[in-house]
Amino acid sequence: TLIKPTAVIASHANERATEDGKVIAGTKTETFMKASAVPVHLPLSGRTMEFDDAGVCVAGC
């Protein structure tokens, strides 16, 4: 493996993946989140997320 992320921000382009800040059941994003071995964060409009050097979300989560 070339890259071993400690956390990911799931992009959900071309898919309505969230509603009221929560993932919608049955979406590709939900499937990805369930399959991921690392924490998955949802990108939310207007919110800036900050991560430390270990990939832990420390603000805006």
Short structural summary:
13% of the residues lie in helices and 21% in strands. The chain has 61 residues and is of the alpha+beta class.
Secondary structure elements and their pairing?
Blueprint lengths: L7 E2 L8 E2 L2 E2 L4 H8 L4 E2 L8 E2 L5 E3 L2
Folded structure, characterized:
- It is a single chain.
- This protein is an alpha+beta fold and 61 residues long.
- It has one domain (8-59).
- The protein has 1 helix and 6 strands.
- The protein has one helix at residues 28-35; strands spanning 8-9, 18-19, 22-23, 40-41, 50-51, 57-59.
- The strands form 3 sheets. It has a two-stranded parallel ribbon.
Question: Can you tell me the number of structural domains?
Answer: 1
Number of helices: 1
In what range is the share of β-strand residues? 15-25%
Helix content: 10-25%
The rounded distance between the terminal residues' Cα atoms is 28 Å
